[in-house]
Amino acid sequence: KPYEFNPRNITEKGLKDLKQSIENFGLAEPIVINTTNIIIGGHARYFVLKERGDKECDCYMPSRKLNDKEVKELNIRLNKNIAGIFDFDILANNFELPDLLECGFTENELGLLNKQSDGINTEIKEEDIKAYNKAHVLISYDPDKLSLVKNSIDVLFNIEGIEIEQSSN
Asked: Exposed site from 5, 40, 81, 112, fewest CB < 10 Å?
């Protein structure tokens, strides 16, 4: 059963990429549940599996019972604490561009905004690859509060270099 306080929403692109990943590799990362079978981490994987009609999947459970505060913290940590950044030199030298794009990278993330008439420019120069170094902030609000936050979002949207993704559940 999904955790009612899960603050993470998946984008359409993220959902598409996740569906493709599960189709290609199966469930490679188990869903995390508590002792009462409430999902702590892996909500998007759960919804993809449910949509596919899967009735069972591998789940992990913490090695001890967690209190409500710990469940909330773990839920955030499983979604937020993605430690590290990609080494773009390794990506450029060991992976093909179409494969990286298929795995969910965007042209912008790979610094590949130049296109040739026949498609994407696949010649990668070391100076063309730039780390995607941005801070991320998740803002969640009740849809009926949109009028209270819309102006602030519009102000942020108009600042050069700020990217905004919006989704709802």
From this structure: 81
CATH number, domain at 63?
3.90.1530
Count the alpha carbons within 13 Å of 132 in the hemisphere toward its beta carbon. 14
In angstroms, the CA 30 to CA 144 distance is 34
CA pair distance 109, 168, nearest whole angstrom: 24
Q: Could you give the CA distance from residue 89 to residue 98 in angstroms, rounded to a whole number?
A: 16
The pair of three-digit structure tokens given for residue 92, joined into one six-digit string: 């450029």
Question: pLDDT tens for residues 110-139?
Answer: 775 444 334 555 565 666 666 667 777 777
Task: Tell me: do 93 and 75 sit in the same domain.
Answer: no
Separation of alpha carbons 39 and 61, rounded Å: 10
**pTM of the entire predicted model:** 0.56
3-class secondary-structure state, position 31? strand
Regarding whether 123 and 101 lie in a shared domain, the answer is yes
